[in-house]
Amino acid sequence: MRCSRLPRPLRAQAVQARRPAKNREFKMFRQMIELVCFLRVNLLELTDIAVQQSLRRSQQLFREST
Q1: What residues make up the domain containing 40?
Q2: H-helix or E-strand containing 17?
Q3: pLDDT tens per residue across span 1-14
């Protein structure tokens, strides 16, 4: 499921530039979709970071063992 067709930085800028009163005008469904997309992107980024850290650690352990 794609959350938006805009690149992530542009999407973030659009959300950040939005007035808080404008958020209240959105229907609950749209607010929930934006929240789910935000959480999904953050989960993907954190997963990437965790994989990179474990890869670095495993490479370090391998280097030390040889």
Answers
A1: 8-65
A2: helix 8-17
A3: 455 566 666 666 77
Is the residue at 2 inside a domain?
Answer: no
Per-residue model confidence as pLDDT tens digits over 22-44 = 777 888 888 888 888 888 888 98
- When divided into structural domains, the chain yields a total of 1
12 located within any domain: yes
1 occurs within a structural domain:
no
Tell whether the model's pLDDT for residue 45 goes beyond 80.
Answer: yes
CA distances from 40 to 4, 9, 56, 61, 64 (A): 12, 15, 24, 31, 36
